[in-house]
Amino acid sequence: MVTQRRVKTLPGEVARKIAAGEVIDRPNAILRELMDNAVDSGATRIDVDITCGGIEKIRVVDNGCGMSREDLAECAHPHATSKIATEDDLLNLNTLGFRGEALSSMAAVSRLEITSGGFKMRASVTEDHVITPCVETKGTIVQTQGLFENFPARRQFLKRPASEATMCRSTFEEKAMARPDIAFSFTSDGEEKITLSAGQSLKERFVETMGYFENQELFYEVNYSHPDGSFSFTLVTGEPAVSRPSRKDIFIYVNGRRIQEYSLVQAIVYGSQGYFPNGTFPVACLFVTMDPSLVDFNIHPAKKEARFRDMNTLHHQVSTAARNFFKQYTVRSILESDFNSEEKTQNLEFNFSASRHHLEQTASLAFDSPSYSELPKERYSIKNPSSSFAEKKEGRAKFFPSPAEPAFNPSMESDRQLKPNYVPEIITTGEQKHEDGFHFTGLALGTFLIAEKDGTLYIIDQHAAHERMIYDQIMAESQAKQKLMVPYEITTDSQADDNYIEAIKPKLEEAGYTCENCGNGKWMFTTVPARFRGTAEDLKKDVLDRRVNPKDMINAVAASTACRSAVMDGTVLDRITAEEIARGALKLPDPHCPHGRPVFTTITRKQLFALVKRT
Hints:
Layout: H1 12-23, H2 27-40, E1 45-51, E2 57-62, H3 69-74, H4 102-109, E3 111-116, E4 119-123, E5 130-133, E6 140-145, H5 152-155, H6 161-177, E7 183-188, E8 191-196, H7 202-210, E9 219-225, E10 231-238, E11 243-244, E12 250-254, E13 257-258, H8 262-272, E14 281-282, E15 284-290, E16 295-296, E17 307-308, H9 311-335, H10 356-361, H11 370-373, E18 397-398, E19 425-426, E20 438-444, E21 448-453, E22 456-461, H12 462-476, E23 481-491, H13 495-511, E24 514-519, E25 522-529, H14 536-545, H15 555-565, H16 575-585, E26 600-604, H17 605-611
Parallel strand pairs: 1-7, 12-15
Antiparallel strand pairs: 1-2, 2-6, 3-4, 3-6, 4-5, 7-8, 9-10, 10-15, 11-14, 12-13, 16-17, 18-19, 20-21, 21-22, 22-26, 23-25, 24-25
């Protein structure tokens, strides 16, 4: 039976504890708020000291602007803040803290003590802003003790001190990451755990803070500034060798604050597709600086989420930046042996400086991605792009099926031979094969092709090499369209969606999609790429939900088709066919299969001599 209760106002102490519970749920929440305040104070050094996982004590010392006696007398009252004055200030936030809830909440659930400017203030459930003189201190010292000692029901839900200390350390790392201009230290139970010096680059701060086992030289900074000045960003990311099985090592910061923003994580993942094998993901940290009026942080109690006025442009530029970096890195890995050490740079900034002599000798490099057309052409010295692998030439094999030929059926692979539609068409004139320094050695272990060129031995994965060749051919033909007998109709959910489709319409056209705005949120698609096999709902998910780059929308189809069509591991190849695949593999613009696996590995004469202890 339900008992009716009268409405009444809660006692002040209960109300404060409830309000505090929304901000302070465990020790690391206190540390988060205190570090935000220390950064906002203009400090150049911040020292953190915790005891018993922060349950018994958290102490944060900074050398910032400090607080006056008047500030101390007001600071721990509800909604007391120096960072905003009117509601309009919420739309132009330049500080990490702003609500004025943190210190009041700490005083409600612990014993709070603040020392600054020759005064010490104490506040708790039993004391209200007791101020006493003390030795003058530069900056501010804030300390909390006995978390939830007056709130036993909440205290019993805390984890063991070691677990709480781990969470405090994670919060410390999160706050220190975005401010390499500030020195930080973290001490737990009297033992200094982390010391970070000021004046680091974002890359240095990221790698050192996270303590990755990979060498710092495997990480790079990619910088971008939007022409209208509305935002800029630095993407710190590892090369493809630095990978993880999940997205948890992709971090997003906006205006110095780490947030949970799936769409920006997604943008980095999209940009790295095809460069990380076997379902792995990059290690990356995105630092966005944005006009405060374009982002709202006042939507989450812990400020872990944000709302953007225009996410589409930012999403696109982040994805493009990641994709361009990994493309450039791939080319660099091909040419690295010919780079001057002075020309190597860990900060690419979309600038790929290579030896002009070497690039002029390299006829097989081609950039055909639309994203490259957006970059300054004068920064690239690559000449003589190779023609399509689909062209028949004397002395070369034709590896690719025509669009009219049926797809390869993997279920018929039992005879271990190439299927008729995919048998290379050998057109030989008996010419010598070694004028370019290439020499085919043979096959090994039923999977690998062995070739030699310029003093280097190449061990080539026959499936990955053939798969990449077919994939490149499919993508070269990706602009071919198929007209839909019944057009696909997509209904948008907002004007922002309409604006987004309008903005990417030229790119959709380039990729083979023809669409028309019919008004009232309805878009009609009359053509799609020839190889597109999805439904109208699939198309809507790709365009509006996933915000997939138009060219990437057919990547998955192309990769799947290429994988099924390529010669398989263990397929028996005749020598001429094998030699042609090996030769083609060494001319690939991107020596990775569509899923990110390398097409070949190399070993030099010097390395071989070292292996057999020969001098």
